[in-house]
Amino acid sequence: NAGVTQTPKFRILKIGQSMTLQCTQDMNHNYMYWYRQDPGMGLKLIYYSVGAGITDKGEVPNGYNVSRSTTEDFPLRLELAAPSQTSVYFCASSYDEDISGNTIYFGEGSWLTVV
Amino acid sequence: GENVEQHPSTLSVQEGDSAVIKCTYSDSASNYFPWYKQELGKRPQLIIDIRSNVGEKKDQRIAVTLNKTAKHFSLHITETQPEDSAVYFCAASISSSASKIIFGSGTRLSIRP
Asked: How far is Cα B19 from Cα B27, in angstroms, rounded to an integer?
């Protein structure tokens, strides 16, 4: 299994441009997440999904959009990129073994710089 | 609102000594509390977790304790080694959705030789 795969690994965007970060997982996990991590800071939840066709906002959703058309894929769309969106983005997934919790597996991260 | 606070932000201990990192959470219905370790430039990786029906869990040199009444949980690392140097994050599930996991701000642990 490849686990959680996200692309691209590095990207430089100009202010106002748009882009999509791709994420796919091959573990048949029903839950998927997008987090951002600013330099030297913690992880902030952007959006998450409990299954295909269902998405919910996290702590910092403004400026982003997501979709979940399949169990495997959970792309993150940045519209009108701003310098404040310079960050490392982590896609993650988990399998809800029971109602009380699950283990989150992270992708390797995507380093995004907006200039 | 939903919040996980983590202290200290940095911690330096002598090799062989113990390290303790503490977290508090705001949602009394939170029921899952994982801890992640992140090395420089790498992805976070789960090191231990605890669920609300358990007060303590241990895995070799690592242990986690949970006090649901006080809404706080702690990570204990004994006999610290150089490879324990990393950033550690606590996290908690949020009652509105068991799938929603939010993280603390992290603790940078340094082990002095």
From this structure: 26
E-only strand ranges, A2-95: 4-7, 10-13, 19-25, 31-37, 43-51, 54-57, 64-66, 76-78, 87-94
Work out the minimum CA distance from B66 to partner chain A, whole angstroms. Answer: 15
Q: Cβ contact (<8 Å) for B34 and A33? A: no
B98 touches chain A (CB under 8 A): yes
* Rounded Cα distance, A71 and A90, in Å: 18
Cα A11 to chain center, whole Å? 15
**Residue A58 CA to its chain's centroid (Å):** 11
pLDDT tens per residue, range B40-91: 989 999 999 998 888 999 999 999 999 999 999 999 999 999 999 999 999 9
- Is residue B84 helix, strand or coil? helix
Please indicate whether, in this complex, the C-beta atoms of A100 and B103 are within 8 angstroms of each other.
no
